[in-house]
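Hi all, a correction to my earlier message: I attached the wrong file for Flavin reductase family protein. Here's the right sequence:
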Amino acid sequence: MAYIDPAQWSKKENYHFLTSAVTPRPIAWITSQSSQRVLNAAPFSYFNMISADPPLLSVSIGRREGELKDTARNIIETGEFVVHVIDEDNVGVANETAANLPANESEVLKVGLTEINSHRVAVPSLKESRIRLECRLKKHLTFEGQEAVTDVIIGEIVGYDVDDEILTDDNTVDTAKLKPVSRLGGKQYASLGAVFEIDRP
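and the right structure:
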């Protein structure tokens, strides 16, 4: 075994190690809206659920040269956002929304996504996703590292918008029909692959 002290590594070295070691990671494809009503969309793989009661999720958004990214700034200013699940059918266009655009330009318009009204939040959702989690900001945390600052957004999910075709009779998601995609290291993604069950003791 190799022991590595993360304090001896640069931000880039830690990033490359962690994103290749902690895999697969779910991807939050987030829409947020600026105070000028510009609709932003971007994917983030430092993301997961953290609670079912209340239903909470978290997403970490690193700052760029000390400045808040559009998604973080929009969520902090408006208090609302929508998380979309990425699957095999939308992963390509979701990746396109990772482009670094000026704050007054919409990734949604640039890549030709379909904007639809959400049910409980003012931020629009994307028709291209079959699971949409409408969220309100619960808590905003900041963490300062040696080289960077990270904004951690904790959102309370106030509504689930789910395609009928993937919702089962017992109100769970048919994962095989959803065909979710996860993030690995570098440029790599992964599809669902083999599924197996293990009984809990």
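Sorry for the mix-up. The helical segments are 11-21, 70-78, 91-96, 107-111, 175-178.
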